[in-house]
Fold:
Amino acid sequence: MSTHDISLTVDGTTEELTVESRTLLVHALRDELGYTAPNVGCESGKCGACTVEMDGDAVKSCTVLAVQADDSDVTTAAGLAEGGLDPVQRAFHDEHGLQCGYCTPGMLATTHQLLDENPDPTRAEIRTALKGNVCRCTGYGNVVDAVETAAERLSDAESSAEPAGSEGERDQRAEPPRPEGED
Ligand code: FES
Ligand code: FES
Structure:
């Protein structure tokens, strides 16, 4: 089995390691480097438990070979906090969107990318973004609430950082109807 020396940055720390050609990124992160936020669920790209951000994109780290992550910048859910919970983590906490430790890290990573790309998503867009993150045991209503709250707080923070007279349009947004049985 051939091996490869790779280097990547994980949660701000430069890591160098030797991996086999077949080693998945999630296994390199967990088993070789000890970053346990990404979890191993299905190992087939279906559950989202292993989701991390890689160079800003949310990826399922069981679908990425470790060698493909060479020279990349990886952020796990644990790495989102800098001296405290980040706004997305805080919103999940406040809205009771935190579920188990297995599915939540992946949901946080997916939410980060969503809000980077679409700072004001509708509830339907939130649901679409999170459709690859599966929870087997509870509902998704509070998760969608948490993503909305995170979006609102990030927008507020951005508005307050803007010059006077450039207030955002967030408050004019219509609340989309909530589908029945969401919770
Ligand atoms: S473990 Fe990667 S998607 Fe399920
Ligand atoms: S799988 Fe995490 S709460 Fe259901």
